[in-house]
Amino acid sequence: MDGTDVVETESPNDDDWIDDELIEDDLLVEEISIDGMCGVY
Amino acid sequence: MRGLLIEVPAPADFDPSRRYALHPRVALRPEPFGALAYHYGNRRLNFLRSPDLVALVEGLGDHPSVEVALEASGIPPQRRPAYRAALARLATSDFLTAAPLPGGDRG
Amino acid sequence: MAEAALSPAKRSGLAGQLKAGLEAPICLTWEWTYACNLQCVHCLSSSGRRDPRELDKAQMRAVVDELAEMQVFYINVGGGEPMLRRDFFELVEHCVASGVGVKFSTNGGMLTADKARRLAAMDYVDVQISLDGVDAVTNDRVRGEGSYALVRRAMDHLVDADFGPFKISVVMTRDNVGQVDRYEDLARQYGAELRLTRFRPSGRGTDTWSQLHPTHAQQLFLYRWLFERPHVLTGDSFFHLSALGEPLPGLNLCGAGRVVCLIDPVGDVYACPFVLHDDFRAGSVLDPGGFAAVWRSSSLFRELRQPQSAGACASCGSYDACQGGCMAAKFFTGLPLDGPDPECVRGHGSALLEQMADSARPQGTSDHSRPTAVALIDKSVSSFR
Asked: What is the predicted ipTM?
């Protein structure tokens, strides 16, 4: 269950790819409405 | 109220040179993808989708500023803009609060 | 037709991660009793009579302790009528003291002025009042004579007690879809939030669903009306309508057994409150390992956390948006689970239904309905057992 986070690799090639992905901060923090789940009152 | 992915830019008043801490009414629960964060005050729910971010947030209040926390985190400098922006978003929904150092630091 | 757009959670991949399961539910529905002072014709839990195996106070507190330990953030308490439990306030206080927030749903019949004040003084308790018509004529037709008056009185008590914002929750039926603007007015009048929720053919709803569920035209109207009003809550219950175009706010997926689940009054754990049936029973909180073991290891939940087959919906361009709709709606109308929702906006569900005999429909596992028509109780709770 402790998935290895790919962004922890340190090789230079990987950093370039990771960099592009993480610039989009909405991948790091995502808000979901608390009303957004079935069964919520 | 019913925000989805709230695509807000970092607010001008989020200042990484200040000390921030997790809001006391926020519960953080580890998950396979990172953590769930729920604010009991404003009823908002955030997903922290990186274990690095979770560790950063948990330890944020231990450092005199966000920048020092980032420095101590081991997150490489070129990745820090994304993390600063993520922290700024959490601050926008009141999940992080500016926390002056004990002793009355200006903050 | 253009393919429907995806919700943000689906675009980002978060939806996929949620469907694979979480360490604990984000929240869960917990029916505290099958006893009820009303006999609504569409009751999803077929409530009325208290079950003799109803969990006692100690058992309930033990479950709360477990939920707190698992860091379940809050519970959605319902029933039956939860305020009919004599230990209702004790349990709510125990939840709040343990860090588990309480949102509860009530018909208002027990919500006296004194109880409203008591609720107003508590930390993290949210109240939702059920109302299915903007006037007594419409409402009482499904909820029983006098039930509208109970709601108005309860809401007045909440306002008088300075409770703050509460929710008015309406089950959308053929009879009340046309009243949505007036619901908004009513909510505004009370400083309340409006919540519209989908009518599922569950519990006593199995028998009334075909006559009462909104027509196709009403569903199109409802989608547009909701889309224009993102402040109106839905509990993600209309995600089958997201196939019509831009998704409505919410996760737009079935969270049963993945994000949420149900604990019933006798401690049985089901995938969701709308499928009280053995096929969707995952275990019991009274089993060894308690609720945590059921959530994490039950074979039903493990199965639900596997990728689901699109089945008959695989060739439909809307599938990513609607995910084949609501499991409960399909189950209790007798439709196969890997196929269209009975209210599929493309008409695939109704086409299938026309070919099916009534006898193919499952019935809920437990029925706590009272055998005779109810006499509404609006006196003190001591007169009701």
From this structure: 0.86
What does the pLDDT read at residue C198? Answer: 96
| CA distance from start to end of chain C | 56
Contact B32 C124 (CB under 8 A): no
pLDDT of A41 above 50: yes
pLDDT, tens only, C96-120? 999 999 999 999 999 999 999 999 9
Point out which residues pair with A30 in neighbouring strands: B47
The pLDDT-based confidence of A19 (bands split at 50, 70, 90) is very low
- In angstroms, the Cα distances linking C31 to C77, C104, C118, C278 are 6, 10, 21, 17
Cβ contact (<8 Å) for B49 and A30? Answer: yes
Amino acid B15 reads: D
Q: Which residues, in sequence order, are bridge partners of residue C268?
A: C284
B22 CB within 8 Å of a chain A CB:
no
Tally the C-alpha atoms within 13 A of residue C332's C-alpha that lie toward its C-beta: 28
The pLDDT value recorded for residue C377 is 37
Q: Which residues of A touch B3 (CB under 8 A)?
A: 31, 33
Q: How is residue C145 written in tokens? A: 């004579």
- Could you tell me if C14 lies within 8 Å of chain A, comparing CB atoms? yes
Short-list C337, C257, C259, CA closest to C304: C257
**Structural tokens at position C159:** 């306002």
Identify the CA nearest to B53 among candidates A8, C219, C377: A8
Please indicate whether, in this complex, the C-beta atoms of C230 and B27 are within 8 angstroms of each other: no
* A21: nearest CA partner in chain B: B82
Q: Give pLDDT < 70 ranges for chain C.
A: 1-4, 357-360, 372-385
Q: How many CB atoms lie within 10 A of CB A4?
A: 8
Is the per-residue pLDDT at B107 higher than 80?
no
| Distance separating alpha carbons of residues A34 and C233, to the nearest angstrom | 10
What number of residues does chain A have? 41
* Two tokens, residue C147: 């039930």
Test C29 with A36 for CB contact under 8 angstroms.
Answer: no
Q: Note whether C106 and C62 are within 8 A (CB).
A: no
Q: Is C33 helix (H, G, I), strand (E, B) or coil?
A: coil
Question: Is C363 in the B-facing interface, judged by CB distances under 8 Å?
Answer: no
pLDDT on residue B66 = 97
Question: Scanning every residue of chain A, which has its alpha carbon at the shortest distance from the alpha carbon of B93?
Answer: A31
Element (H, E) at C203: none
Band of residue A26 on the pLDDT scale cut at 50, 70, 90: low
CB-CB under 8 Å, C17 with B33: yes
CA A34 – CA C236 distance, rounded (Å): 10
Q: Tell me: the pLDDT tens digits for C122-172? A: 989 999 999 999 999 999 999 999 999 999 999 999 999 999 999 999 999
